[in-house]
Write a structure and sequence with these properties.
The structure is a single chain. The chain is about 65% helix and about 0% strand. The chain has three helices and no strands. Helix 2 runs antiparallel to helix 3. The longest helix has 30 residues.
Length: about 80
């Protein structure tokens, strides 16, 4: 099992019902599990955003033909985890 560290953050009173509902649904009542799930979802959203940005850049270069190696390199750059 990995070592865990408690990280504190504040939640506005108005946001508490939403947090509690999401924790129940996605974290099965466990806030730490909910945060892990939320981080995975947001990481996937970040990758999708980076891929959309790449698509826009490629579309701006209409007429240019990319080799298979260039496409592979571009995709690897987008999917490479960020520190």
């Amino acid at each position: 099992m990995m070592a865990a560290q408690t990280v504190g953050f504040a939640v506005a009173d108005d946001d508490r019902p939403l947090l509690d509902r999401l924790v129940d649904r996605y974290g099965h009542g466990n806030r730490s599990e909910f945060l892990r799930v939320a981080m995975r979802v947001m990481a996937a959203e970040e990758r999708a955003e980076r891929l959309r940005d790449l698509q826009v850049r490629v579309q701006a270069d209409v007429g240019r033909v990319y080799t298979a190696d260039e496409v592979t390199d571009l995709v690897r750059q987008v999917l490479k985890p960020r520190g």
